[in-house]
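Progress note, sequence design subtask.
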């Protein structure tokens, strides 16, 4: 990762412009062409330096459902179950935790009613129960990781 990649990551954590040509506008900030910015983002995704690049939508405000979910998965079965869970398009942010409930993920669905359906489908596919923890109150925590050079 070079200094331009680091600068791109640091800048884009603060937002992305909403305009006719947002990639060109961002690229100009770094003195590069739009095509180079797109290529750099694609390479960072391929190298897993970025897990995703895209907007964050508020599913509930759009009429959908959103819930935090957890599962208790034996270590020997964790990777296989993670693949099965991640195959559901409604699943995001799946991560391991050092806890009895060691697999946690966010479920975002098109309707609130779909939450229960997807959870039932995940349980059927994996053979493990899913603990549903719907949001009672929302808090915004701004989190930025400053990427520094070697």
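Output:
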């Amino acid at each position: 990762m070079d200094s331009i990649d680091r600068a791109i990551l640091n800048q884009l954590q603060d937002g992305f412009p909403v305009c006719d040509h947002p990639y060109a506008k961002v690229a100009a900030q770094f003195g590069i062409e739009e095509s180079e910015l797109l290529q750099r983002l694609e390479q960072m995704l391929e190298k897993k330096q970025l897990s995703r690049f895209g907007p964050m939508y508020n599913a509930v405000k759009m009429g959908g459902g959103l819930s935090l979910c957890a599962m208790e998965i034996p270590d020997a079965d964790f990777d296989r179950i993670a693949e099965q869970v991640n195959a559901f398009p409604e699943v995001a942010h799946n991560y391991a935790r050092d806890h009895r409930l060691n697999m946690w993920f966010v479920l975002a669905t098109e309707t609130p009613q779909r939450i229960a359906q997807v959870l039932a489908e995940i349980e059927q596919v994996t053979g493990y129960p899913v603990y549903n923890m719907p949001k009672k109150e929302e808090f915004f925590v701004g989190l930025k990781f400053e990427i520094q050079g070697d």
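The radius of gyration is 18 Å. Work on this subtask will continue into the next period as scheduled.
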